[in-house]
Amino acid sequence: MSIRITRSSVATVHGVAALTVAAALAGSAAPGTADAFCGFYVSGSSEQLTNKATRVALMRSGQRTVLTMSNDYSGPPQDFAMVVPVPVVLQQENVRTLAHDVFARIEALTAPRLVEYWEQDPCYQPPDTMLGSTRSFSTSRSGGSSGSIGGGGLGVRIEARFAVGEYQILILSATQSSGLETWLRQNRYNIPTGASAALAPYVREGMKFFVARVDIGRVQRTPEGGARLSPLRFHYDTQDFRLPVRLGLLNAPEKQDLIVYVLHPTSRFEVANYPNVFVPTNLDLDPSMRRQFGRFYTTLFDRTLERMNGRAVVTEYSWATSSCDPCPTPPLSPSDLATLGADVIDPSNNAQPTGAMPGRWAGRRPMSGGGGMNVTRLHTRYNAQTLNADLVFREAGPIVGGREHVVDAQTQALEQGAQPAQSGGNNFQARYAIRHPWRGPIRCRNPQRGVWGGPPAGTSAQPVRPALDLVSRTGAAIELPRVVRTAVPELGIAGVQRNARAQTTPSGTTAPRRAQPKMSSGSSKLAAGSLGILAALALVARRLASSKKR
Length: 550
Hints:
Helices cover about 10% and strands about 30% of the residues. By secondary structure, it is of the alpha+beta class.
């Protein structure tokens, strides 16, 4: 896919949509694939490079854009290059290479997550010393020269050239797409069929072309034999906020996954030119999904997109980078944000980007105060029929969802779906739970059901599990109605129907039952009881009230 960048944003891209071209060398090679790339690949041999996935993180503030892209490439064993449309002429000081794991933290922080909760003793009475006090517990565990050289009468001009890491970089301008295609072919780049038509809109808009030639001999190899390219980061200023995806379709033999991380000092983002939809969240799952969570979520995502006829962008996460609940990984640090571009957004702090090369980041600093940013994770799967225009982004209002937040004290119903935030910022995540009802004796007159927390003594706590590498998941789809215990009417999932109140067994104990929540939308979904400080305080308050009555 191609990535289009604007003056008012900072973008970090794992696999940006760009045109990738392989410099033609002697020798033949087997066909290969190039994953996570916004654009199209151009091989130097007769073989085509292909891509199936793209990860992009966009940090936006004012009119500044920083773009970072990282691509796992597997293809002909020869030099190749990539071409990315950019709005301005980049200079060497605008371009950096980053550590290979630059996307690991943000992917883990924003990924769909699975948690496990145990129902607490319904007859628990806090010690007298705890009455009237607050007890808190966490749900988390855990240099170039320029000039018109080599363009001839083709309308192609080399605006800048320089080297960064394993990349030899040219910045090209062009007055006609056919001339640019011819120039690339004359310089021994094999252009995919249809390249001229795909390049034409960018040429008409006066975009420049970032051409990064790669020396395969200097890159790190993957265990599968592919090449592991250093992530590239560059920044510039421009007005609109777009991501060029059309170019990447030239290398896409089938549908491509696109995950976009948008970082902004305060706001959530969505797309302005395609439908937006939120992934169903706060669903309780069968315990068997503990080992199949990745396949479960991939199936859920597929069904969500199918409901929109494949033409939509799914919001999976929007939260401050400085916090999380539950946390599959620590929140992003000031150094993480500096790595993703905050060092060129606000030079008022002096944290050094992680993985930075010594002496390369002097004077570059993250956001003021190190207070973090808001990160929105957007996900879609597309082909030429479902996504035929570059993505245009816009700011959107704050939302909440996917929290252990009780909306009905009587039924202990949790919030369902995405809801507008009544106050504060964004707190939305794709969160799923396995719940273990209380199985011990219940020997009190007024048991308090639906209070969830950590495991009982002797039971090992399960870590928060993020669903990573979703685009590489294979295997049969999960039968969602068989494993999802919460009703999802829009996907045809009835959930597990239970009585609104707990039923008493012949032995006098109370069998565990889950309350059926009352939703304003008219749909009912099973929800869990509270977990956290508010739940603990509510439980103490109820017992204090009952003790006063006695």
